[in-house]
Each structure stands twice: as structure tokens, then as C-alpha cells.
Write a structure and sequence with these properties.
340 residues, alpha/beta, TIM Barrel, 12-stranded mixed sheet, binds S-adenosylmethionine, binds iron/sulfur cluster
């Protein structure tokens, strides 16, 4: 049974966060000194995630992305990958990682059947990396990307959040780096979600501006003609190199949005900007059967009318979305808890 929300959007795409912990502190995601972590006992086991994914799959979900926090911090992650990779109902399985622990884990992830991987990398300069993330681990990410390049993944992508005055002078170097390691680069507009408490519209480099700058350097860019629910618009350079731009801030794509998010402790969010989620851990641990979970998820999705990024765009006052005090008392509002 496939369900649709109030705007006719299917429940096709699930992002599964496996931990809220992270080994970086990117200043657009985790800028504070201290964080309140989810209680360990609340974190879903792989068997619980597996059961929930089956319920989602029965309702039309055919794409799953494993995320976090930093997913590679979760012990034995390849075991979860193997469980999910074995599901015939999923036609797409991917993982988003900051890449720090990737080099060591690539073989086990591949062996477990992970077909696709996305590595977040915002700069090619190690000093900048440290200033952005608070850790001197740039070399490890590059090693991770090298390992991924030679591991036979169906696709390796690099996600780069572009921030004015921070890394917006690296559009061309990032594309050239992606070409070298055989990874498609996707530039992400800086968003005012969760932990981005220092966000300002002035720091956003729009899709339009990125395309203009790249066209000025390369002599043109052309849109790839494809109609998918994927958030990245893809473009080609005159020499054929393909790249993407995720314009969530200036040209949001809420009307096609088929994504929902499951936190590591089993709260399910229908929108990245939603303030409340649906507790799935409670019913699961109270013994709810498959049918009851299906009914709960289907009924909740049918009520969905979220268009968070579009509403933010229309807001007259676009100051910080969620003040830091609110984040501290409600860690579920954080990007690193929602999985980005
Ligand atoms: N830790 C992993 C990583 O960084 O790839 C996975 C989780 S992270 C929350 C997922 C994605 O969210 C990353 O690509 C990150 O760059 C992106 N992200 C976090 N905060 C963001 C923001 N304020 N604007 C745009 N993207 C953001
Ligand atoms: Fe950076 Fe990802 Fe960690 Fe957020 S969760 S601080 S984006 S590495
Ligand atoms: Fe989907 Fe919400 Fe993001 Fe819009 S803001 S694209 S509805 S998750």
C-alpha cells in the first residue's frame, strides 16, 4: 500500500540516523561548546531499525539513506548495512558520512553491500577545515575519499555546504578535485536549520550565483534534463563534467519532497523544519505489531502538509530559526540529531 500526503507526495525516501554523536563540530551544524546527547537506552537497535524500515517499505519507501551525527561512529554499522542491502523493496541505499573513519571502513561497508556513498567535504584547505570543524582531520577525509574512489561503489558523491566568505572561493577547485577522485560534487546552499544558530541570509550563496560564477570560469553550464524528486539539480560543464546544486534555501523543492527522517532514538519527522515528530520507539518497544505501526505511519503521513523551507523563504523575519536555548532543551531540533 503506497501512501501519499496532503500534497500528493509519496513516502518514498527515508533518512535513518544511527547516532546523534559526531567526531566533528562543523560550525554550521554544531557550533556550541556543549551538547545534550540522546540517552543510550533510547537508541534503536539494528533489529528495531530493520523492523521499522520494513514497515516503511510496505508503505512505499524504496530509498534509504543512513546518516547521523556521524554514522561511522556507530559500532558494527556494516551489520545494519547488510540488513538493509538485503531488502528487495529498497531500490536505493546510501550513506552520508564526514569521511573521517571512512578509509578503514570502506572494505567492510562494500562487503556488506553498500552501493552508494556521500562524503561531506567543504574545503580542500586543511587550515580552513580545522577552522570550520574544530578538528585537524582533513587528511583523514581525503584518505577516505581516495579509498572510496577505488572501492567499486556505484556512485561516490561529495556534498559541500557553500558559505560566503568561508569557502565560496573553492567552487572550481572542488569540482576539479571531484573530477580527480571520480566523485560528483553537489553544492548545498547554507540552510538555517537546527544547529545553524549563526546563520544569516548574507552568508548564503544562491544557486543562481554559483551557476554564474561557474559559467564565468568554465564558459557555461547547462541543466541536465531530468525530473526526479532528488533535491539536487544537476548541471554539466562544457567539458561534460556533471555536478549538482541543492538550493534548499533560495529555491526550495518542498512540493516534490518525499523525504522523512527517523532519529537514532526512533522519532520520525515529516520535514527537516518540523518542530514535532512522531514517536515510533514507544509503540515498537511496547510490542506494537507490524499492522499497528503501518497504520500509525500511514495516518501520520496522510496528514502531512509540511513545506518548511518554502515557509522559511516566505517569512518576513528570517532571523535564527531556533534559538540556542531551545535547542539545548530539545536536542531533537538539532540537525545532527535529525540527520540533515
Ligand atoms: N555527519 C555526516 C556528514 O556530515 O556527512 C552526516 C550527518 S550531517 C547532519 C548531513 C549533512 O547535513 C552534511 O552534508 C552537512 O554538510 C549538512 N548540513 C548540516 N548543517 C547544514 C546547514 N546548516 N546547511 C546546509 N547543510 C547542512
Ligand atoms: Fe559536521 Fe555532519 Fe557532524 Fe554536523 S553531523 S557536525 S555536518 S560532520
Ligand atoms: Fe521537504 Fe521539509 Fe525540506 Fe521542504 S523543508 S524539502 S518539505 S524536508
Amino acid at each position: 500500500m503506497e501512501v501519499q500526503d496532503r500534497l500528493g507526495r509519496p513516502l518514498a525516501n527515508l533518512r535513518v540516523s544511527v547516532t546523534d554523536r559526531c567526531n566533528l563540530r562543523c560550525n554550521y551544524c554544531m557550533p556550541e561548546a556543549e551538547y545534550v546527547w540522546l540517552p543510550r537506552n533510547d537508541i534503536l537497535t539494528f533489529e528495531e531499525i530493520d523492523r521499522l524500515v520494513d514497515v516503511f517499505a510496505a508503505l512505499g519507501t524504496d530509498k534509504v539513506r543512513i546518516t547521523g551525527g556521524e554514522p561511522l561512529l556507530r559500532t558494527d554499522l556494516p551489520d545494519l548495512v547488510a540488513l538493509l542491502a538485503g531488502k528487495a523493496a529498497l531500490r536505493d541505499l546510501a550513506l552520508t558520512t564526514n569521511g573521517i573513519l571512512l578509509a578503514e571502513q570502506v572494505p567492510a561497508l562494500r562487503q556488506a553491500g553498500l552501493p552508494r556513498i556521500t562524503v561531506s567535504l567543504d574545503t580542500l584547505e586543511s587550515d580552513r577545515f580545522e577552522a570550520l570543524t574544530r578538528f585537524d582531520r582533513h587528511r583523514d577525509v581525503l584518505r577516505g575519499l581516495d579509498a572510496a574512489a577505488g572501492a567499486g561503489f556505484e556512485s561516490v558523491k561529495i556534498d559541500t555546504v557553500v558559505i560566503r566568505g568561508v569557502n565560496d572561493d573553492e567552487l572550481v577547485p572542488m569540482l576539479e578535485y571531484g573530477r580527480r577522485v571520480n566523485a560528483e560534487v553537489r553544492f548545498i546552499e547554507y540552510m538555517d536549520v537546527g544547529g545553524a544558530t549563526r546563520w544569516s541570509m548574507d552568508d548564503v550563496v544562491s544557486r543562481r550565483e554559483m551557476l554564474d560564477r561557474l559559467a564565468a570560469h568554465y564558459g557555461g553550464t547547462e541543466a541536465v534534463d531530468e525530473s526526479t524528486a532528488a533535491p539536487a539539480d544537476r548541471f554539466t560543464l562544457p567539458d561534460g563534467l556533471v555536478f549538482g546544486i541543492i538550493s534548499s534555501t533560495t529555491e526550495p523543492f518542498c512540493r516534490q519532497c518525499d523525504r522523512s527522517r527517523l532519529t537514532a532514538d526512533g522519532l520520525w519527522y515529516r520535514c527537516l523544519y518540523a518542530r514535532t515528530g512522531t514517536d515510533l520507539r514507544g509503540p515498537l518497544r511496547a510490542g506494537a505489531g507490524r499492522e499497528a505501526l503501518e497504520d500509525l505511519i500511514a495516518a501520520t503521513w496522510r496528514q502531512r502538509d509540511d513545506r518548511g523551507a518554502e515557509e522559511r523563504l516566505a517569512a518576513a523575519d528570517r532571523s535564527t530559526f531556533i534559538p540556542v536555548e531551545a535547542l539545548q532543551s530539545q536536542p531533537h531540533l538539532e540537525m545532527h540529531t535529525r540527520g540533515g
